[in-house]
Specification:
Elements: E1 9-10, H1 12-21, E2 29-34, E3 41-42, H2 45-55, E4 59-63, H3 94-100, E5 106-107, E6 115-119, H4 122-127, H5 136-143, E7 147-151, H6 160-168, E8 173-179, E9 182-188, E10 205-209, E11 212-218, H7 219-232, H8 246-256, H9 266-270
Parallel strand pairs: 1-3, 2-4, 2-7
Antiparallel strand pairs: 4-6, 5-6, 7-11, 8-9, 10-11
Helix pairs in contact: 1-2, 2-3, 6-7
Bound molecules: coenzyme A and zinc ion.
Length: about 280
């Protein structure tokens, strides 16, 4: 019997049409943030998303964060260490996990804030990261004039904005990660809960695929809009939740102000230290 309450299945062909309509033609370098559930029922799940996207991009990247490795103090007990195949945190999602499971994918070294990438610039994107500049892979996409694709998720998942904050000079906090048998400090940003504040200041393209809204933005537009917004209102993207680390960032901002950091070009950031 026909079940009228069952939602129609979104097919790979539907997704391909949506990606084509966004203008993805295989030449773009794209970072994706996705929710499978936003499609209702997507035929083939994460595999379909990665296959369709990779056919239509030169480089496909995604955050593949692993929060269980993060230490709030250098003396905090180490729960788990990071390796190439460590499972992506659930709140980062199945799509980057599917990418990590592909042998050809590159994964950056950061124990908590790793990025995964496939395709032409995968090596460049993943190699550009450092403990001081964990969001530098976005800087590589900035240099490549890449795009950020939101699939059924909001600006709270739009990691590119963190790189705009970095360049604008928002103070970074310190957290610790287990790395090469030691505990190393890493820069760590405020949260992204209030990133929707940026939405009115940046223009993107939007396509509907079944119940999911897909939005595509130029990385440069996001980063530049973030820097402009913060130069007028440095606290604009910090949330107001009392216990959130955003309040530490706010205190530091009030003491120190913004201290803009230069965007280092690809050549410069890949040169070995001391060169
Ligand atoms: C948090 C987030 C991953 C949750 O979205 P989600 O759709 O629930 O999760 P996933 O994309 O991992 O998909 C898995 C879920 O999809 C559903 N699902 C499984 N197969 C599916 C299919 N074929 N079609 C549709 N949904 C499916 C399941 O309910 C599954 O949840 P479960 O494992 O609890 O059963 C998403 O909202 C998000 O924010 N993604 C971007 C993350 C990011 O890049 N953040 C940047 C950090 S700054
Ligand atoms: Zn916050």
């Amino acid at each position: 019997m026909l079940n009228l309450r069952r939602r129609p299945v979104v097919t790979a062909a539907d997704l391909n049409r949506g990606l084509d309509a966004l203008g993805l033609d295989g030449s773009q370098h794209v970072i994706v943030h996705a929710s499978l559930r936003s499609f209702g029922q997507l035929e083939g799940g994460a595999k379909t998303v990665v296959n369709s996207l990779f056919e239509r991009t030169a480089t496909l990247a995604a955050p593949s964060f692993t929060y269980a490795t993060l230490l709030s103090r250098p003396s905090s007990p180490i729960r788990t260490t990071f390796h190439r195949d460590t499972r992506v945190s659930r709140d980062i999602g199945r799509v980057p996990q599917e990418m990590v499971e592909r042998a050809e994918a590159r994964r950056s070294f950061h124990p908590t804030l790793s990025f995964v990438a496939m395709g032409a610039a995968a090596e460049l994107v993943t190699r550009s990261q450092s403990l001081d500049s964990p969001y530098r892979p976005i800087g590589a996409l900035y240099d490549l004039d890449g795009y950020a694709l939101l699939m059924g998720v909001d600006f709270g998942s739009n990691t590119t904005i963190h790189y705009g904050e970095h360049l604008a000079g928002v103070p970074l906090l310190t957290r610790w990660v287990p790395l090469d048998g030691q505990v190393a400090p890493t820069a760590f940003p405020n949260c992204s809960a209030d990133f929707a504040t940026l939405e009115p200041y940046v223009r993107g393209q939007s396509e509907q695929v079944g119940p999911a809204t897909l939005r595509l933005y130029r990385v440069r537009d996001l980063v530049d809009a973030t820097m402009t917004l913060l130069s007028h209102d440095p606290e604009a993207l910090l949330c107001k939740v009392r216990g959130c680390r955003c309040q530490q960032v706010r205190d530091r901002l009030r003491q120190e102000g913004l201290r803009p950091r230069p965007h280092r070009g690809l050549e410069e950031s890949l040169r070995p230290a001391g060169d």
